[in-house]
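Training component of the fellowship. As part of building independent skills, the fellow (R.M.) carried out the full modelling exercise for a liganded target. The chosen ligand was glutamic acid. The inputs are recorded below so that the supervisory panel can assess the work.
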Amino acid sequence: MNPVSPLVAAWASSKPPLLRFLDRCHADYLAENGGDVAHYIPELSKAEPSHFGIGLATLDGHVYEVGDTRVPFTIQSMSKPFVFALALDSLGASRVESVIGVEPSGDPFNSIRLNTDNHPFNPMVNAGAIACSGLIHEAKGNGAFEHIRRELSRFAGRDLDVDEAVYASESATGDRNRAIAYLLRTNSVITDNVSAVLDVYFRQCAILVTARDAAIMAATLANRGINPVTGEQVTTPYAIARTLSVMTSSGMYDYAGEWIYRVGIPAKSGVGGGILASLPARLGLGSYSPRLDKHGNSVRGIKVCERLSAHYDLHMLNRSDDARTSIIADYTIGKNPSRRSRRPHEQEILAAHHQDVRVIELVGTLSFSNVDYISRKLAKRPRPQFVIFDLRRVTAITRAGARMITEQFRELADFRVTVILSGIKRSSEGWKIMREWTEGLHNIRDFYLLDAAIEWAEDQVVYRHGGSIDFHETTELSEQPLLAGLAAEELKELAALGATRTYRRGEKIVGAGEAATSLFFLQSGVVHVTLPDGVRLATLTAGMAFGEMALLEPTRSADVLADASATAVAIAIADFEGFRNRHPRAGERIMRNLAQILSERLIVANTKVNLLTAT
Ligand code: GLU
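Fellow's submitted model of the complex:
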């Protein structure tokens, strides 16, 4: 047996930097024994003070876990943001916002004080949270708690239970919350029976979660309401933005201002010892360590969040973005024509009017800043007749980006510019979104393949400038670049070896993976050469050869399909070899022609690659 090298063994157990960082936090803060477990709910005082778990969920659904991440604890006030989001979604924003404020109170979480409208200051303090439970009770009656439990389970991506002992303990001792609830009731914030509403609230606080759950729940908030592990859209983006807003201003008890100033990540903690922190578009963090500081926040949890934010510079107000990275290529068809072989008069028209077709290849997310930048780049050069936006590398479009690009399309329509979109499959989500943006606009076309889009735009330019697309026919092998330089008798002999074949529109002439047994000279019609993944390599018209790679390779690497009905002369490779043996000089000439054709293709391919890096 070969000994395993130390590097190979180490690689297998290597950890991503983020996990190493969390490991270090865990190791460093495990020694931190400040603070105390909550006592005012008697059952909470039984928590094991040494427990310490950190979970971090990314928006692609990965969860890093260090320490006691599977130890259940009661969610307590960490339920508040989710029940607020639920209230917004189930009763409508105006109903919720009419009875619960969104200002920080500056008071402790369990303060028995309402604002000047006699409403709770915000949904993150007990008064506001009890009001939210009351609203859900109003809508769902006896089913209110089950509704909440189910919704929170969707945030966590698993079915959550209740700690009956903690529930009973708080229910038996929660007189302060009772006082708050009666105050809400006399001010008509709660309209249902107070003890029924409190029962919902106490139960919701006793829902059991783990640090891992908290991380996923936080990541769902960070991901516009889509649980990144299950993929489920749990709540609306409206509710998410409002929930994160109140977490930002009031999530960390009377430490909230300091928290957002120092850490800059919306968060919510609970007296059970949990903290969840949700950095929009980045991550969700869940920590569990039941020793609390004087504000009621987990001592170790706070330290983890502070260090995470400082180490990776994650303060949400410390952001920048370079809009210029969204364009990876910007050219006219002068630099990068379609792969369609064109007759000389078409080439002339296209050369003279190459500015008419502008191609902009985009990448990444189309956001507010990206689309604004693109529109300014577009305006800098002369007005084209056609603009092709290639979207195949676009991964997302924000609402602002979608709105602005629609405005740009409309503007282009006013200038009679046709917009061509390429790179979106009709079966895709992107296609649906694109249909929405472009509804009612008549200057939009789409082609999945960029090359097909360029080809179509070229055709329009040729037509507009009086040219015709001439699908001429030729039976002359002398016009074939592959056979250039052969003597008339040699061409005649070759022609005699061939068999004329006709193909229907759409018919496959050769298929990738098949044995390459013949080569073809196109006499009429149009064919295209496509890779198995759909990439179009070339569009050919009469006078061109295809399948000529059979001279070098025994197996076909691409499909050739007839675009329109086509006629071709097929010569078997075996016959061609015989010809080359009989006419070595002609054989060598053909191979040199082939080398030249291939080198021209390579130059074209390199130009295309260079275009992608030149901008
Ligand atoms: N059930 C607890 C209470 O209302 C929650 C407190 C909290 O976690 O902040 O007192």
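The panel noted the following from the submitted structure. The chain has three domains: 17-312, 323-464, 477-611. The chain has a mean pLDDT of 92.
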